[in-house]
Amino acid sequence: MPESLPLPAPAATGQPRPASLTDLFWSFTWLALQGFGGVLAIVQRELVEKKQWLTREQFLEDWAVAQILPGPNVVNLSLMIGDRYFGLRGALVALAGMLTFPLLIVLALAAVFTGISDSPGAQGALRGMGAVAAGLITATGLKLISALKTNVLGRAVCWALAVLTFIAVALLHVPLIWVLLGLGGLAWAWAYRQLGRSALAGTKP
Description:
Largest sheet: none
Distance between the termini: 27 Å
Radius of gyration: 20 Å
Order of helices and strands: HHHHHHH
Number of helices: 7
């Protein structure tokens, strides 16, 4: 039996990729250092719009996987991208880039914030930053809507799932694990059906 052919590397398809492990490390370090208050917006801008390591469709797919895995979403994404280009070494280097300098900064800020955490000014600043973070996430979601045009689920189903997820999480306060198992399971089953129909249509003469 002949050996299966390897998947084409991103470079073979003309899509930009990290030049080296060093490039990967500093790219994720810079990404992490910008991620105050709304990391999703920063990740999408850096990886999709600036570096173009991912298309919008690829970003949505990878981010969806990163969200359902345990742990911080962006850390999961960094592991996935690092592994895709450089294997285990890339995953570890990307993770180091995400965590090294931000960890040092957070420890320093925690030491400083301990003395002013009860200050009304500090509490007001945190509430204001929370509102900005929500706006950043909303803006990024709106920018990614166009990627749903080519989603295998179909635009109507995508919108229906988005609305049902919002209702379940924001209004009914359903635990996330049940939302993932329920609506996520329905989305998986529908996508599997659509992909099967597409494959069947492609084999017909």
